[in-house]
Structures are given as structure tokens and as C-alpha cells.
Amino acid sequence: MYCFEDRVSYSRIDEKGLLKPHEIINSLQDCALFHSEEVGRSCVIMKEEGMAWLLNYWNVRIVRRPAMNERFSVSTWVYQVKGIFARRGFLIETMDQEPLVHGISRWFYFQHKTGMPVKPKQIDLDVYTIEKEAPFVEEKGHIPVPEDLQLMQTYEVNPGFLDTNVHMNNSEYVKMACGVLDLGEEVTGLRVEYHQAAKNHDVIQVYAHRDPEGVTVSLRNPEGMEYATCRMEIQNSREGNR
């Protein structure tokens, strides 16, 4: 298990002074990448070799979002490797070990030259210990997308959205999805499926469907090809447990 300590800064909070949902995703993603740095297989080294681990799926349960200036720890561990896929568990806790966020993720091994998933190199398997620690949430099936979606927003991808893979960073999809929420709505569960990586100058249309339990968001291009699907379980903060 790999762990690092973090602290909520002003640039990462919302109007309630709490860590934004997409910043939670950033913290989890950073933890995974710090882990790869620690074992000597950083994203930069892998890119030089033409390889990458790309994210395919999130399932994150938010117990409580940490507040401005609050210190917290982020932990990750690899709990399964099968075929082209690897699965990671995540835990965010206060410094007193109060659980804040539980999560799992699924990654696939990718070759830049072919643009296709491939079987992982042995070196990228040997550096990780497969932990016995069970994840706190279950992996679920595909997120169903309702037919009666409403177009909410449109974005054009620019260099500020991109990461080392020259794709739009994983958290940016979540940031766009959260943009459809109303003030006062609290995200308690977040599932994301990534279908196609958005690149510079791609146009992303954000469609949403609201039901009593939450909001389903489909991020797609004008021709209907999906980049990502996001399902957010929400509650009104006035009904929350804080």
C-alpha cells in the first residue's frame, strides 16, 4: 500500500469551503501516479517507452468531503491484475483515521504507437505487490444512459485540459459533469466510465438526465460519440449528514 499526506487549499474548494468532487478525483489519481513514481515506473518513463496505464473506470463513495486547510491522507493499492487490466483501491482518511472517501478504479495497459490496449510488460507487473486488502466498494456494470437527455453545456478542449498523454485529463470530465449540479447538491457517490479520450480542439457536449437519486451525465461529441459517462448520486446539503 502506498500513502501520501495532503492538505485542502483554497484553490481546490467550492462555495461551501469543501474539497470539490473533481479535486477528490485529482487526489486519487495523484496518489496512483505517486505510487508509480515510488516504484520507478513513472508516467514519464513509460511514455518514453511508448506505454501507459490509462484509466477506464471509477467508483467513488464520498462519506465526507474535507474542508479548507484540513489535512488528510490518501492511500492506494493494486488488488488485481488480469489480462490488460489492473484494479486499484483507494482510501482518503483524516489524520485521525476517520474515513472520508472510498474508491476503486480500473486501468488498462496502452501502447501509444498502435493506439491500442496491449498485454502489460512484465516489468510493469513485477514492481507492484498485489495486496490482499479488499476494496470498500464494488465494481458495477456499465452506467445506463437514459434516452431523454438535455444538452446543458458545450466545451472545446484546449491545451489547458491536457496531460502527458496529450489527452484531456481524467478529472476534467468529472469537473464538466459536476457543472450541471445545482448549488446545495452534495455528491455522495460518483461512477465514471471513460470510452474515448478527448484531444485538443475536440468539442464536448454535456448532456444530463436527472432522477430522484441523482444525475447521469453523458459527455459526447456533436456526432454522438461518447467520451465518458458519469453517474452522480446526490443529496441536498440541507438534508445531508453534516
List strands and helices in order, with pairings.
Layout: E1 2-7, H1 21-38, H2 43-48, E2 51-62, E3 71-82, E4 85-94, E5 99-111, E6 116-117, H3 123-126, E7 150-156, H4 170-178, E8 185-194, E9 203-211, E10 214-220, E11 226-236
Antiparallel strand pairs: 1-3, 2-5, 2-8, 3-4, 4-5, 5-6, 7-9, 8-11, 9-10, 10-11
Helix pairs in contact: 1-4
Number of DSSP strand runs: 11
Strand fraction band?
A: 35-45%
Number of helices: 4
What is the helical fraction, as a range of percent? Answer: 10-25%
Rg, Å, rounded: 18 Å
Low-confidence segments, given as residue ranges, are 237-242
Would you list the SSEs in sequence order as H and E?
EHHEEEEEHEHEEEE
Could you report the average pLDDT, rounded to the nearest whole number?
95
Indicate the overall shape. globular
Distance between the termini: 30 Å
Derived structural class: alpha+beta
Biggest β-sheet: count, sense, barrel?
11 strands, antiparallel
Could you write a compact summary of the structure shown?
With 242 residues, the protein is α+β, with helices and mostly antiparallel strands.
Give a description of the structure.
This protein is α+β, with helices and mostly antiparallel strands and 242 residues long. The chain is 15% helix and 41% strand. It is built from 4 helices and 11 strands, in the order E-H-H-E-E-E-E-E-H-E-H-E-E-E-E. Strands 1, 2, 3, 4, 5, 6, 7, 8, 9, 10 and 11 form an 11-stranded antiparallel β-sheet that branches. Strand 10 and strand 11 form a beta hairpin. Residues 237-242 have low confidence and may be disordered.
